[in-house]
Design goal:
The complex is a heterodimer of chains A (126) and B (188). Chain A has 126 residues and is an alpha/beta fold. In chain A, 37% of the residues lie in helices and 33% in strands. In chain B, 46% of the residues lie in helices and 24% in strands. Chain B has seven helices and five strands; from the N terminus they run H-E-H-H-H-E-E-H-H-H-E-E. In chain B, strand 4 and strand 5 form a beta hairpin. The chains are: A alpha/beta (126), B alpha+beta (188).
Chain lengths: 126, 188
């Protein structure tokens, strides 16, 4: 399965989706006006990946900013991961937040309470 | 009674003005405004908590404007851009105020007002509950975040949303939203 590599911009994150090693990484800023357009390829990729996922999928997500329009799309991404986790494959979501960024920690906790996938909250230096 | 946008602009223009804009609200303008504000916040050596909150609130405010500007009064259209809005960011000590304004038709007042009033009565814990409820249950609209913007702003700032509707003519009102990001709860 083809991996997805998207370079970040000032409004959209860097994305690497790799089916071989089960590594999913989303880094940077996610504040586009039209987030559905940006996230659709990711959700589609996960839908395909779901059919034959790696034994263990590790998700590293580290966002400096994200807007409310992205928050819905990120939930859609997590829902796909939840589906994968329901099967035999294992999924873990590492939610990174910069130290002192309580809003970002809380955002991660919001998702953790909605999505049935193990979350790890990881504080990183600014 | 009508008002002039210029008067309003002047009226809102108090404190140290970091950014002031009136005109078309486009994705390009939003980029420029965000870049400009970010570099100013860096210049001030602002605490990262405040810096991020101000930036986040500005993103939501601008994108709310962008998604919800639909039409402007006809007699206004000759003079100004079709996607007309105003933006002011002012600083007073360590408090930042973000004001936005746009035309709305009279029928939008009631739902908008009741939404803001509801948000203003909620505690932080209740805002969190509402945010999650909208996040899980509302479909994302073509217009954007599916109604999360104002809830997010209230949640992040911990302040009430100040607003005003100024009558322009029978059909149109100018909606002004003032958001305060204060550093009262920030530990330094």
């Amino acid at each position: 399965m083809q991996s997805i590599d998207i370079e970040g911009t000032s409004k959209t994150p860097t994305v690497n989706l790799n089916a071989e090693n089960g590594l999913i990484e989303i880094n940077g800023r996610s504040i586009p006006e039209n987030s559905v357009e940006f996230y659709k390829p990711l959700v589609d990729w996960l839908e395909e990946y779901k059919k034959l996922p790696a034994e263990k999928t590790t998700v590293n997500i580290q966002l400096e900013y994200f807007n409310t329009s992205s928050s819905k799309c990120i939930l859609d991404v997590f829902k796909k991961l939840e589906d994968i986790n329901k099967g035999d494959a294992e999924v873990v979501i590492n939610w990174h937040y910069e130290e002192d960024d309580e809003d970002m920690l809380e955002a991660g906790e919001d998702y953790e309470s909605i999505i049935r996938v193990p979350f790890k909250m990881i504080e990183v230096a600014e | 009674m009508s008002f002039t946008v210029q008067d309003l602009y002047t009226e809102l223009n108090e404190g140290d003005v970091l950014l002031a804009y009136k005109g078309s609200i486009t994705p390009e303008l939003i980029n420029d405004v965000l870049d400009a504000l970010e570099s100013k916040l860096m210049d001030f050596n602002e605490h990262s908590k405040i810096r991020k909150k101000v930036y986040n609130v500005l993103v939501e405010s601008l994108q709310n404007l962008y998604h919800h500007i639909d039409e402007i009064p006809l007699d206004f259209a000759d003079q100004l851009d079709p996607r007309f809005g105003i933006l002011l960011v002012t600083k007073n000590d360590n408090n930042y105020k973000i004001s936005t304004g746009n035309f709305v038709t009279a029928d939008k007042i009631k739902p908008l007002k009741s939404k803001i009033e509801k948000i203003n009565t909620l505690s932080n814990e209740e805002l969190k509950g509402l945010y999650k409820d909208i996040l899980v249950n509302n479909k994302i609209s073509e217009k954007g975040g599916g109604g999360l913007g104002l809830v997010d702003i209230a949640r992040k700032t911990g302040n009430i949303l100040e607003y005003e509707f100024k009558s322009f003519d029978n059909k149109y009102f100018f909606f002004i939203l003032n958001v305060l990001v204060s550093d009262l709860n920030i530990n330094r």
